[in-house]
Amino acid sequence: MILIADSGSTKTTWALIGSENKVVTEGLNPHFTSDNAFLSACCAVSQGFPVPDSLSSIFFYGAGCGNPTQRERVANLLRLHFGSADIHVETDMLGACRAVSGRKPSLVGILGTGSNACHYDGTRIDCQLASTGYILGDKGSANHVGRILLNDYLTGVMPQKERQLFHNAVDLTDTQLMDAVYHQPNANRFLASLAPVAAKNVDNDYFGSVIRDALQAWCLDPLQPLMQRARCKEERLNIVGGFAKAIEPTLRQCFEHAKLTIGTILADPIDGLLAYHSS
After folding, report:
1. What pLDDT is recorded for position 175?
2. Cα–Cα distance for residue pair 191/199, rounded to 1 Å
3. Taken in order 197, 198, 203, 207, is the CA torsion positive or negative?
4. Per-residue pLDDT of the chain (279 residues; tens, 9 = 90+)
5. Beta 125-128 vs 22-26: how paired, if at all?
6. Is residue 211 a contact partner of residue 175, using CB atoms and an 8 Å limit?
7. Which residues contact 264 (CB under 8 A, 6 or more apart)?
8. Which of 46, 81, 129, 240 has the greatest number of C-beta atoms within 10 Å?
9. Who contacts 211 (Cβ-Cβ below 8 Å, separation ≥6)?
10. Sheet of 2-7, strand order
11. From start to end of the chain, where are the E strands?
């Protein structure tokens, strides 16, 4: 039996092939997660559904797993908890490719808490620009939108009506907001948690413009440079991510006049990964 995990920065979804049950734990990006926290999540998986002794393989697709040292660390932690199953630790980007494109070539994007993009040849990622993380990169993502909203709110740029709506939704003082960004762990998750205010009010002129500006930034960097470097002929962009799904109509509209056609948008890649590994 095969255990599959898809781990972003916010949550990790675990599933066994042949079982309808899923277990959701916290995001397990190894750059931000301690060994104890990782093993605690593994315990929650074992409690959520019985992992059989006949477990043959584990496929773990995770944010932060592109670094060889962290990839080996994740494999060792999985081995420590689940035993000597055949363990494969891959990036969340490859997981997104397999989930949303199967074995067909396409451009693939992740648009959730963070963002990324690559060209997938149907087997492997053959072109991907460097991911610079939530401070320098993650254009178009939930935490990018959250950064814009928070900056506009704290500096008084946000219009008064929208400012009141944002304040009611967040319900934190300015000091608490700054503390969450600069002194508390997982600032990327916190910033991403602010984005639903805009997503739920996308028809509002201000909130809609914030989302469109963030998507335009994603299109210009990294999507357009990626297309040029990959010299790809595919114009279809398949996307994985809960934030992408939440803003799907606006996302498709923003790309109407671009050179890219939005194909499939999948909120959670786990079902696509189950289908991929079942075949």
Report:
1. 95
2. 14
3. positive
4. 899 999 987 889 999 998 888 999 999 999 888 999 999 999 999 888 877 766 789 999 998 898 899 999 999 999 999 887 799 999 999 999 999 999 999 899 999 988 999 999 999 999 888 878 788 888 999 999 999 999 999 999 999 999 999 999 999 999 999 999 999 988 988 999 999 999 999 999 999 999 999 999 998 888 888 888 877 666 689 999 999 999 999 999 988 766 678 999 999 899 999 999 998
5. unpaired
6. no
7. 100, 101, 238, 239
8. 240
9. 145, 198, 199, 202, 247, 250
10. 22-26, 11-16, 2-7, 57-62, 86-91
11. 2-7, 11-16, 22-26, 57-62, 86-91, 106-111, 115-120, 125-128, 236-240, 261-266
Alpha carbon of residue 107 to chain centroid: 16
Is 146:194 a contact under the CB 8 Å cutoff? yes
153 phi/psi in degrees, rounded to 5: -70, -45
pLDDT digits 0-9 by tens, 220-252: 888 888 888 877 666 689 999 999 999 999 999
Residue 266, beta-bridge partner list: 240
Would you state the structure tokens that stand for residue 162, as one six-digit string?
Answer: 């929208």
d(CA 209, CA 132): 24
User: How distant is the alpha carbon of residue 60 from its chain centre?
Assistant: 14
What single-letter amino acid sits at 190? F
